[in-house]
Amino acid sequence: MSVLIGRLVELGVIEGLLGDLQSDQGRSLLIEGEPGIGKSTLLSSVLSRAAERGCEVRSATCDEENRQFQLSRVSRVLGFDEAYRDAAPPEPAGLGDPVAARVERFLTLVDRMCVERPLVLGIEDLESADDDSLLLWRRLCRATAQLPLLLVGTARPESRRSALEQLRREVRGQRGVQLRLGPLGPQETARMVAEETGSPPGPRLIGRLESAAGNPFYIKELLAALVREGQISRREGTTELVDEQGAPAGSVVDGPLAVLVSSRVDFLTSETRATLRLAALLGPRFTVAELVSLEGSTPGTVLGSVEEALDAGVLEPVGPALRFRHGLLREALSADLSVTERDELRRRAAQALITAGAAVETVARVILPALATADGWELDWLTRNVSRLADRVPAVAVELLEHALPHTSADDPRHALLESQLVGVCFLLNRFSRVEELCRGILARTSDPHRIGQARWLLGITALRGGRYTQVLIEVDAAIRDPRLDAMWRARHSALRALALCFTGGPEAAGEATRVLALGEELGDPTTMGYALHAASVLSSRAGDRTASLAGIDRALAAIGTEPALIDLRLGLLGNRTSTLDDLGRYREAAETMALALGLAERVGAPRLSALLVQNASRCYTAGRWDDALAELGQVEQLPPGLRLIQHGVAALIEMRRSQWREASHRLAQLDGVEVPPGWPSSGGNLLVARSLAASRAGRPHDGMRILAVLLSREYERNMETRSDWLPDLVRLALAAGDTGTAWAAAAAAARDAEHEPLPGKRAAAEWCRGLANADPAAVLAAADLHRSAGRVPDLGAALEDAAVLQAQSGDRQTACGTLGEALAVYHDLGATWDSRRATERLRFLGVRASGRRRPKTGWDSLTATESRVASLVAEGRSNPDIAERLLLSRRTVETHVSHILAKLSATSRKEIRDMAAGRDQ
Q: How do strand 232-235 and strand 56-61 relate by DSSP bridges?
């Protein structure tokens, strides 16, 4: 139809969205309504209008049967897999979660596509989408705020799946539009009949069509059935029902809707119905080539059936593919088949697809529903293809493997392969309890040394992933005693033992690491060498020798190279290398190393990505890049409990120092009663400081001091390498509480830390604590200089504040005023309004007044330093992935910065940012 009948309002909304898109303003549109109400027709209208305006257009259809195949339908129809292979070098398989990696690929590709021209993505039947596709769609909704991207999805309103409800909230939260399509009225129904038949309907026909309840699909189907049964005639320029006595007995038009729809399918030849039943196995959309494979006949035969189905309105073309015009038509094709007949059809179809060499996902879609009656014919195919399937849709691979194992006996050569694959995929999906169950079963049954070694290794690594170091020692000791292990597996487990001893404080750790490294070099085994060198580097770091630690890390990275099985170790080493370089003051190299780790983890969907984001957020906090820190933390998902302490500690501390007390209090409340273990990295101390600050603000300074006093215990001195970062806070609180004993104890602890490891941060802490304890502003200013040269901005501001207080207390108010001004300038750049207020009040009490600059909340001058750099690169027309590479940030962090920039500039698109930047340059 040239005009969508009864949808003028909706078309007006669409025109507005397309107009915004051509002005570089993205939006999202969710079209909801009952089956047949016209959602697909409206979506097709959007896509065709967008294509006419020069937009890039892609579309896909979801279906319930394929919900287990995460992202597969979306990636296949949108063509993202092929496009990404052309746009980026491939990564080795098996490095991480392939679904998470593909989500990141899609988002990166969309970013880059939108730089070229506006992009419109359409998805039908979102209620049938898998959760990962809905997650991708939600994240794309957020991207519409800063990209020329229009998302159009359709869904049934009655669906209340949690993931779909989240999507609805995301659409509303990102200025998206929800359209609810209602039924057509009598006049609109009459117009539809007139367009279909060439003349307006008479009153009896209008009355008969009332049973369709204004649903366009039902109206058309009922009208078509009336025509087929000869119940319509044209007379005097009107289309009308024949006399009631002319209606045939048992008319389908008097039956329920299912009978009505079935009549459209029953009208086809038996050959065409048989072809379409096979097509229905492939989902709502398929190609002629796939049908030919299923039929096992000539293309000409299939084309004849396709043409008949197209003429009958059962199928319709969509690009190079075909689809069923409505899901009810697919249902009608199989309604007369028994379960046995349907399963047999699926079996024949699967075998035909296997013979034709069809894609593994296509075969798996057909096999999955027939598993209950499968009798072994599918096992050979699964054995040959499970690796590829696991790399594409691991959850489906698990289901097929769990089915296959009971159908193969222990002496079947396929059993061992399938079981090993299942263990690997479960480990990839973090299903560790199932991994342990399977591994213990393997150890009880097999005599294969390699499988025994692999099973014992996974038991040890699983415990290591959970931080259960004592359990690691139990597992590896059992492995080393196992006479079935060969020399290489014994060496690998010894290396794992050396690493666990590093964290449990075992005195033999150093000797074990040296011995195992020599053994690994003798065997030429990258795994043994990598873990042994990792252990040695940890020991060097704890001994205070960062240079030796860095050398060990670099040797380990060289030893393991890009071995796919060692990706987690590689990422862990890169994270440690970043920290070590920071400690040594080699900040540019540290930033480059972290960018390398984040980029790799994002590309492969590595589980360690969240840990790296938290680590980088801690680095950003120390460097005063608080917006970067919050942006990184905002991307974190599914953290283990220990890392959640770091995540919330860093975020709460920033929120407190920016006077966002409600948000910080809510965050700290989630961790009530949770202790910070002394063995955790230094970032865990941020939670202690945040709790101390909250107590002090609540009028409980002694409680604030006691919270930090735990840093003086032997456990923290031995295990928390950079506890000295927070000792100046403890000295200050102790002096304010009149507890000079604790103050001097903290100063002495800082001095010991600096003597043990004279790094810039520890030397600064020692000078700062000594200056506070002795009321010596010169020592505190020396600490401030060290922090300034090390780029530790928040510590610089706090040291300057303390120095100003000491100067004022000594009577030098003029110098104190200048020092306070420097501190307030630092706080201004951080947005640390609480620090500014505290410093001003402390000095006012001593008779010193100084006014600090206030950053405006909106406009170009409100942008932070990082936001200004990002805005300049946006103005150059660069995409978010390109900006991320330039600034050594993650793509998602850049996305967060762009959102903040748009809000602060009251801009609605990247184009407006470019225009504003051009105006400033004139």
A: unpaired
* Helices 793-809 and 833-845: angle between axes, nearest 10 degrees: 10
Predicted pLDDT of residue 69: 65
Question: What average pLDDT does range 32-36 have in this prediction?
Answer: 87
Whole-number mean pLDDT of the chain?
84
Residue 420's alpha-carbon distances to 416, 425, 427, 446, 488, in angstroms, are 6, 9, 11, 12, 19
- In angstroms, what CA-CA distances link 764 with 708, 747, 792? 19, 12, 10
**Any alpha helices (H) in 605-674, and if so which ranges?**
609-622, 626-634, 641-657, 661-669
Q: From CA 552, how far away is CA 515, in angstroms rounded?
A: 15
Amino acid at site 47: L
61 φ/ψ angles, rounded to the nearest 5 degrees: -130, 135
- On the 0-12 / 13-18 / 19+ scale of CB atoms within 10 A, 87 is middle
State the Cα–Cα distance between residues 708 and 902, nearest whole angstrom.
40
> Which residues, other chains included, contact 812 with Cβ-Cβ below 8 Å and sequence gap of 6+?
none
Q: What is the DSSP string of 296-351?
A: TS-HHHHHHHHHHHHHTTSEEEETTEEEES-HHHHHHHHTTS-HHHHHHHHHHHHH
DSSP 187-205: HHHHHHHHHHHSSPBPHHH
d(CA 269, CA 412): 46
Lookup: tokens for 663: 């948000």
> Would you state the pLDDT for residue 233?
85
Tell the burial category of 428 from Cβ atoms under 10 Å away from its Cβ (0-12, 13-18, 19+): buried
Q: Taking 90 as the threshold, does the pLDDT of residue 802 lie above it?
A: yes
Alpha helices in 198-252 (DSSP H): 203-209, 216-228
- Of 542, 534, 539, 520, nearest to 571 by C-alpha is 534
pLDDT digit string, tens, across residues 845-882: 888 887 655 667 788 888 877 788 899 999 888 988 88
Q: Is the pLDDT of residue 109 over 60?
A: yes
Q: What DSSP string describes 33-74?
A: -STTSSHHHHHHHHHHHHHHTT-EEEEEE--GGGTTSTTHHH
pLDDT above 70: percentage of residues in the chain: 89
Q: pLDDT at position 253, please?
A: 56
Are 499 and 538 within 8 A, CB to CB?
yes
Q: What domains can you pick out in the chain, each with its CATH number? A: 8-180 (3.40.50.300), 186-255 (no CATH), 630-845 (1.25.40), 860-921 (1.10.10.10)
CA distances from 604 to 16, 387, 466, 710 (A): 39, 16, 21, 40
For a pLDDT cut of 90, what percent of the chain falls above it? Answer: 30
> What per-residue confidence (pLDDT) applies to 823?
93
